[in-house]
Amino acid sequence: MYDSNRVLASMLSKDHFSKWLGIIIDEHKDGYCKLHYLIREEMLNGFGIVHGGVLFAAADSAFAFACNSYGRLSVALDVTINFVKPAEVGEVVYAEATEIYCGNKTGLYDVKLTNERGDLLAVFKGTAYRTSKDVAGNG
Amino acid sequence: MYDSNRVLASMLSKDHFSKWLGIIIDEHKDGYCKLHYLIREEMLNGFGIVHGGVLFAAADSAFAFACNSYGRLSVALDVTINFVKPAEVGEVVYAEATEIYCGNKTGLYDVKLTNERGDLLAVFKGTAYRTSKDVAGNG
Amino acid sequence: MYDSNRVLASMLSKDHFSKWLGIIIDEHKDGYCKLHYLIREEMLNGFGIVHGGVLFAAADSAFAFACNSYGRLSVALDVTINFVKPAEVGEVVYAEATEIYCGNKTGLYDVKLTNERGDLLAVFKGTAYRTSKDVAGNG
Amino acid sequence: MYDSNRVLASMLSKDHFSKWLGIIIDEHKDGYCKLHYLIREEMLNGFGIVHGGVLFAAADSAFAFACNSYGRLSVALDVTINFVKPAEVGEVVYAEATEIYCGNKTGLYDVKLTNERGDLLAVFKGTAYRTSKDVAGNG
User: Fold this and answer.
1) For residue D48, what is the DSSP state?
2) Is the residue at C15 inside a domain?
């Protein structure tokens, strides 16, 4: 039997880059994850706004936690991201991943990135390939 | 008159996150950029492979350097990425951005991510919105 | 002053391919369009299911009617589509376009394709470039 | 043993919508397909240019013929398309599908749409899911 909390704990304990991002999980359940993090100076690009990769990364973490929540090891296959509004130093950014579809081999997830005022920053849509392996390494 | 070297120097000098990634520019010219970086432990996700955001980020930097090369401030509008093969600690990853199209308001760029053996890791396609501003802040 | 009904009527009157598809508009308002059509034999591909282009086309029409609803001539820049479930001859397919974001130069729209039982067939996300021209040719 | 010509013949014989499009195959081999067709009045949208779905459809056919060329039944999972330039009545449009990657479960294909003068009209990138079934129904 899987346990989505145990799956998340197993993933987070080894996730060095999510730690560097400073990700804090707000809510996690089957097919869903909401998290937030603070934009720091070292996350900026040459135009003084958050680097696209840093926004993408937080959405990608939320996506990974949502699509692996069932305990089946799932990996990102394809992702599209639309950038709507930049984020600046000191802003808290939220990433909320919801499930659009979960089939036998693939799953489809939507992640919305917003700031504290609720402004939409970016929209992320990811397709996961669901392997036949366990996340935790065993049952 | 713009100078693509000056544009790149101006962007890089303030690009904190590209510095954190350890990006080294191999070649830069109008509509083109090739760079590489080393995968470090702090770039890994919970499965012991490079975090998707770290692969995306390097491609996004190459894309930004290519589409801003003409001196017109350009920002990412939409990006799609397809993940083909993971990268591990100690691998050197190359990102090569080439121009598919450059119009008055938008530009379209392709970025291929490969490892030292030439294996394809990911394919990135980005649409830039070309503003009417200068990258360097003046002419 | 624009009038979204007049905009739609102007677009539909000349839209030969939407006519061929047999599109019927269920609802149309600012930033929104819902329509449906029937899958016919001539819409099938070589595997006996609806051709991907025929599903895309209906979503693209809903997207165009939604993003042009304000009277500003808008054209598709980038689109992503995820195919979830095929449709067969005799099925009625619904396309519902909703606005995620509408800025000065670009707009972002989500289109869901479903069948009569409410099964999700495909998810479409489109970025529109908003020109400075009028849809109707004048005000 | 598969035979890519036999696979193509089997697919084309039942492909009603590709017939409606008037698709003519210029070249077909493993992982590759080039085709062309003529833009007719019934393919236009409300702005007097080719409907986005009609451009997508030809690229989708080229993609399907390329990714099914090995005889393994393959279906489109995700597609992204970037529209660069419209096509008008009387233009001949070419779609050329090339393979970026072909793995065990998925394949990645690039399709370029051009007109007779070689102008780029659109760029299509498709991910195929490779089932364990045969295209031709037997070996």
Assistant:
1) S
2) yes
Q: Give yes or no for B119 touching C (CB within 8 A).
A: no
B129/C105 touch (CB, cutoff 8 Å), yes or no? yes
CATH number of the domain at B14, please.
3.10.129.10
Residue B81 above 90 pLDDT? yes
User: D133 contacts in C (CB within 8 Å)?
Assistant: none
Nearest Cβ partner for B80 among C77, C80, C129: C80
Residue D25 lies in a domain: yes
| Distance of alpha carbon B94 from the chain centroid | 10
Q: With a cut of 70, which residues of chain C have pLDDT below it?
A: 1-2, 137-139
d(C-alpha B51, C-alpha D100), whole Å: 22
**Is the Cβ of D24 closer than 8 Å to some Cβ of chain B?**
no
Q: pTM score, two decimals?
A: 0.96
> Which DSSP letter does residue B49 get?
S
Query: Domain count of chain A?
Result: 1
Residue A6's pLDDT band (cuts 50, 70, 90): confident
Picking from B80, B82, B101, the nearest residue to D120 by CB comes out as B101
Q: CB distance from D15 to chain C under 8 Å? A: yes
D81 contacts C79? CB cut-off 8 A? yes
- State how far the alpha carbon of C50 is from the alpha carbons of B31, B65, C42, C43, D8, in Å: 39, 42, 9, 6, 18
A139 within some domain: no
Chain A residues 60-99 with a CB less than 8 Å from chain C = 80, 82, 84
Percentage of chain D lying above the pLDDT 90 cut: 89
d(CA A130, CA A128): 6
State chain A's mean pLDDT as an integer: 95
Predicted confidence (pLDDT) per residue in B102-116, tens digit: 999 999 999 999 999
Residue D31, domain extent: 4-134
The percentage of residues in chain B with a pLDDT greater than 70, rounded to a whole number, is 96
Residue C63 lies in a domain: yes
pLDDT tens digits for range D58-102: 999 999 999 999 999 999 999 999 999 999 999 999 999 999 999
Which helix (DSSP H) or strand (DSSP E) does residue D23 occupy?
none
C–D interface: beta-carbon pairs under 8 A:
145
What chains are in contact with A, requiring at least 3 Cβ pairs below 8 Å? Answer: B, C, D
pLDDT of residue A4 exceeding 90: no
Q: HSE (CB half, 13 Å, CA atoms) of D98?
A: 5
